[in-house]
Design a protein that fits this description.
The protein is globular and about 45 Å long. A hairpin with a 2-residue loop joins strand 1 and strand 2. The chain is an alpha+beta fold. The chain has a single domain, classed as Nuclear Transport Factor 2, Chain: A. 20% of the residues lie in helices and 41% in strands.
Length: 128
């Protein structure tokens, strides 16, 4: 049985984010890249996260959250705006919980830039 993709439970991982994670396929949009990055966080794929981070803002290293009991619950993309000039914004809410605690929400406005035909995560802001 094929497992569902963390970014979209109605799609299989093999048909959704796996080609981006394994084959370095080019994301078709900033939203597709953001979804693959969410899935990479869920799956602990730090190398992929660094590889898709814009060179101007990429950290030297990335320590993924290894909080005991951390569980990602889902992703809701609120909007995707492609400015048409090689930049885009994706607003999303990711839900998670730690152990038996109540679910939390991570609300982010992520900025992306296209460089040589590939989308890269530039930075994010946390509204509210």
């Amino acid at each position: 049985m094929s497992r569902s993709c963390p970014c979209n439970p109605s799609a299989t991982y093999a048909s959704c984010c796996k080609p981006l994670h394994d084959d370095c396929a080019v994301a078709s949009s900033a939203e597709a890249l953001m979804r693959s990055r969410y899935s990479a966080y869920v799956l602990g794929l730090g190398d992929y996260l660094l590889a898709t981070w814009h060179p101007d803002t990429r950290p030297d290293a990335l320590a993924l959250d290894d909080t005991p009991g951390l569980r990602w619950l889902g992703l809701d993309v609120k909007r995707h705006t492609d400015a048409g000039d090689g930049t885009a914004v994706v607003e999303f809410v990711a839900r998670y919980k730690v152990g038996g605690a109540s679910a939390e929400r991570l609300h982010e406005l992520s900025r992306f830039e296209r460089v040589d035909g590939r989308w890269f995560y530039l930075a994010g802001d946390f509204p509210g």
